[in-house]
Structure formats: C-alpha cells, structure tokens
Amino acid sequence: MAKDPRSAGPRPPFPRQQQPAPGTTHALEPKADHGENSYRGHGWFPGCSVLITGGDSGIGRAVAIAFAREGADVLISYLDEHDDARETGEWVTQAGRRVVLAPGDVGDEAHCKELVKTAMTEFGRLDILINNAAFQRTHTDLAEFTAEEVEHTFRTNIESMFFLSREAAGQMRPGSSIINTASIQADHPSPELLAYASTKGAIANFTSALAQLLTKKGIRVNAVAPGPVWTPLIPSTMPPEKVERFGANTPLGRPAQPAELAPAYTFLASDEATFISGAILPVTGGRPMM
Fold this sequence. Notes:
Largest sheet: 7 strands, parallel
CATH class: Alpha Beta
CATH architecture: 3-Layer(aba) Sandwich
CATH topology: Rossmann fold
Shape: globular
Strand order of the largest sheet: 3-2-1-4-5-6-7
Strand content: 5-15%
Number of strands: 7
C-alpha cells in the first residue's frame, strides 16, 4: 500500500533552531531522512560513475546513497563539511561502491576542472553530473544584499554549472546525463531570497539551453525543482521563526525529506528517461509550477 503523502514525513511546527552556516546534518531536529533505510536500487547504473556537488548532506547525500545503490561509483564534491561528507561516503561504501571525497569551492573554475579530472582519474569515466551545490541567505531589506553576497550566490549556484558542465561534457559518452538542481523559487520567488531565487530562474533557462546544445553529443540535460526540503541549509540560513513553520505552506502541509528527492534524479539519469531532455521535474509537495 502506498504511503499517505501527508504523513510520509515530519510536519511542522518544528523546534525553533538555528545553526551557523553551512549547517550540519546531526544538529537537525527532527533528523532528516536521506533514504538510508528505504532506498532500494534497480540496477540502473552498474559500473558507472557520478559526480555530485553539495554531496555531503541534504539532497546531495540522498542522491549519493541512491546512485551508489544503483551501482555507481560516487565523487562527492563539498565545501568544507568534512564530518557530513565522511558519513555520506560511508553509506556509499556500504553499498559496495567506490567513493572519493573532494572538498573545495565549486565557484572556482580551476576547482571545477580538477573535480572532473579527478573523476576521470579515479573512475576512468564520468557518466552523470549532478549540479546540486547551492548558497542562500535571507534578507528583508534590499539594502542588505551586498555585492559580495550576490556575487558569491551566483558563482556557487549557476556559474559553477557552466564550469562543471563544460568540463564534464568533454569527457562524457553518449547516454550520459547532466542533472541540475533548480527550485520552485524559479517560478515562485520569495522576496527575502532575492539573490538565490534569481539564480534558480537562471538555472531553469540554463538547463533548457544546455539540453539543446548537447543533444548532438547524445548527452541529456534535465533539472529537478524541489519545493521546501528539510536540510541543514534551512536552519543555517533562515530565522528560527521561519524554520519552525518551514514547509507548512505546501498543499501537503510539510517539507520534503531528502529521500523523497533522490528518485527523481536516478530516474532522469536512467534509460527509463531516454526521451526526456530539457525538462524540469517539480518535486514540490503539490505547489504548481508554470
């Protein structure tokens, strides 16, 4: 029997909480579900390799676990959350797959080149790129958005996708996939997330254009657009009163758990989706996207 989606994950109100950025998984209350005890593989990616940015926690961790259980080796790109990254790596290892941990700033073009080079050196191939890393801050006054913060948000969220996709596409074989993490913010931007929402709109257009550009190489490009998802990013970038009610505005009345996002990524990369490219798959708890 299928689960009732209204009660498939914790519902707000949540305990008021705040973490220093970028936040840690262990400090979340309630704990997040990354599919550690639920994701079952289908044997979709035996012998393949995947590079996941922001792979240490949240959606990235759930995606790493899922691809490992589908048979893929995993390169986990992350900023500096070493404890979270090691724990994610342990889940990949438990699935019987190889894992490489690669700290560094994806906003740096040279680091993006090195990530792809490392994947090729360690695994001998790169089949799937998951552009998932993101940075956000909330402000209620336009004057609070500094030039430094706006630049950092764009470098992390969208410029990194240019750098990584360019390098990866030069190594990928026909049948490979690039999957970007967009957001419901691309269609329904929150004013306090002005910089972040702007990058998510850019990612939607980037996905559509890149899909058309790479068709001739046999590489598919798609995006997943999450609604609110319970990750360390939330208490580390939002005030406690917002965290307390996080996800309550969805039709399902709760945020997604990271485990509920992972199947969207594995599906889009699989042979079940060979005629899907340039698509944005909403995983929004019932909130419509245009």
